[in-house]
Structure formats: structure tokens, C-alpha cells
């Protein structure tokens, strides 16, 4: 289930609007749930490959180019 995220970005809003859990999204993308938490809160950007997987999974609601708006993190 996980703790609620205080500030949602486009991916976090998509998860809620589509009735998914962050764990379900993590499983679908093959990443850790903690990565999804960071993506949904804007703390991290996904890899280019994962960004395209997110775009496909969300049917374009969260396009890969969206992640360019998120400031880079030293671990990105």
C-alpha cells in the first residue's frame, strides 16, 4: 500500500485517476516501488527506457518528454 505522497506530479495523478497502486505500476515496469514513489513525487526521473515504458503504459498520458520538465537529480 505505501504511505501517501504529499505532492503529485503527472504520473502520480495518473496512478490515482486510473485506480492503480504504486506497487502495481512498479511490477508492470519491472522497477522497485521506491523508484515509483520518487518518480511520482518528482524527486527522480526515470531512465529513458522506463520513460518510454511509462508513456506506453499510460497510453500517452505521461509522455516521455514530460520528464525533461523535472529537474535532474545527481543520481539520474
Helix content: 40-55%
- SSE-based structural type: mainly alpha
Distance between the termini: 25 Å
The CATH architecture can be given as Orthogonal Bundle
The CATH class assignment is Mainly Alpha
Number of domains: 1
CATH superfamily: lambda repressor-like DNA-binding domains
Question: What string, H for helix and E for strand, traces the elements in order?
Answer: HHHH
Can you give the mean pLDDT?
Answer: 89
Radius of gyration: 11 Å
Report strand %: under 5%
Number of helices: 4
**What's the total number of strands?**
0
The CATH topology name reads 434 Repressor (Amino-terminal Domain)
Q: What global shape is seen?
A: globular
Stretches where pLDDT is under 50 for at least 5 consecutive residues are none
Largest sheet: none
Description:
This protein has 76 residues and is mainly alpha-helical. The protein has one domain (10-69): lambda repressor-like DNA-binding domains (434 Repressor (Amino-terminal Domain)). The chain has four helices and no strands. α2 packs across α3 (33-41). The chain starts with 9 loop residues before the first helix and ends in a 19-residue tail after the last helix. The mean pLDDT is 89.
Amino acid at each position: 500500500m505505501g504511505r501517501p505522497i504529499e505532492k503529485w506530479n503527472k504520473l502520480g495523478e495518473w496512478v490515482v485517476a486510473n485506480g492503480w497502486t504504486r506497487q502495481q505500476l512498479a511490477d508492470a515496469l519491472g522497477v522497485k516501488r521506491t523508484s515509483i514513489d520518487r518518480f511520482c513525487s518528482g524527486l527522480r526521473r526515470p531512465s529513458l527506457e522506463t520513460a518510454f515504458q511509462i508513456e506506453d503504459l499510460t497510453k500517452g498520458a505521461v509522455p516521455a518528454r514530460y520528464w525533461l520538465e523535472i529537474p535532474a537529480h545527481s543520481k539520474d
